[in-house]
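Notebook, student rotation project (T.W.).
Task set for the rotation: take a protein with a known small-molecule partner, predict the structure of the complex, and write up what can be learned from the model alone. Partner molecule chosen: zinc ion. Sequence and SMILES entered below by T.W., checked by me.
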Amino acid sequence: MKLTFLGAAGEVTGSQHLLETAELRLLLDCGLFQGRRSETYAKNRQFACNPPKLDAVFLSHAHIDHCGNLPGLYKAGYRGPIYCTRATDDVASVMLLDSARIQEEDAEYVATRLGPEAPPAAPLYTEADARQVSKLFEPLDENEWHKLSPALSVRLSDSGHILGSAITELDIEDGGERKRVVFSGDVGRRGMPLLRNPSTVERADVLICECTYGDRVHPPLPDLKAELLRILLDAERQGGRVVIPAFSLGRTQQIVYLLNHLYQEGKLPRLPVFVDSPLAMRITDLHREHSDQFDGTARHTLKTDDDLFAFEGLHYVRDRRESQSLNFRKGPFVVIAAGGMCENGRVRHHLKHAVADKRNTVLLIGYQAEHTLGRRLQERRETVKIFDRILPLQCRVEKLDGLSAHGDVQDLQWWIGEMAKTGGVGQCFLVHGEPHVATKFAQLIENDCDEPPVIPQWGEAFEV
Ligand SMILES: [Zn+2]
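Predicted structure of the complex:
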């Protein structure tokens, strides 16, 4: 059996791994490389996996760095099945349409900016490609083995990362030998609100494991609700608005879920709360439809509260006009808007109207990468540039740590350790991590694996 790493090797985006036997060619994930357009465009357009010749794709979850190039794969000729959980089928379909719209807008922007002399800027893929590829999804029930062919069975179990996220176990026969190949996808954090803890699996002859936070311990989960409440009470006293930049998938639902808890407990101050992201609204609906995926606490709450994402005073903003009207609304109120690092999405408009007033608060709830507006807010620069305006940063900037969707080094070590304790780990490949992080993590898990863990480079192939 041959395993080739075609993405998320020594980096954190573009997850894509090819597994080949004498009879089968299988692809694990088909993510989009993200970053500067000039660096990623060519990488995203070319497929080293020969799409028409693939037999099946296994999709771990609906984040764009894992599923975002599936429409490209379709465009390049793939027509086989894409196996995933039921929730991932639904969520990825919505995410891919949104991604296609962004690709089309991006191509249009490049064309207008560069003028008629510019080379034609084709979108990576279109909404039509996204719609077509969604028809190839073959949802599977979790926690049970599915025999896909005499030589191939699969079992998906919850990885606790986002709604629908899965750990993929493949039982593959090649040359009379059966092997268990396990792909971690992204492993979530234990004890997070709403989501279940990651499932453990019993053994892996070959393990492909993510290590995004393989060098870092997250701060202990603080009392998130108490911290959130303090920030809202402060805002109410100040009479200002609270702007919460949030990714539409996952983070928005978790914040709304915590606010709903506070409301149910009678603690939430009487502030209007607006969720301003059409994508987040659609994904929230999908959370409602897949409530069987929630953790015990959330499912228990559902017995007395039939909607965990709605409470008096919460309003989902439907159109642009309504979104714009919030800019002139008097405080106090809360607005949760896309996107998470303030680089795009409606949140930039809300920030433009908030940062210069000291009564207002920006609440950051996720990782803010370098060179993003979110990072500049986090660093409390004296001024920030939003669209083309330089504005004084006068508002409060608060940070709510602990909502990371990725497990930290302790979660990952626990997950691999459980496998080592039961059936064992043969060969381990570490992906989805910066090189220095993967190197550190490899040392930590060396004793859990039969062979020293490998950190593959892009394009590297291994006989397994
Ligand atoms: Zn992910």
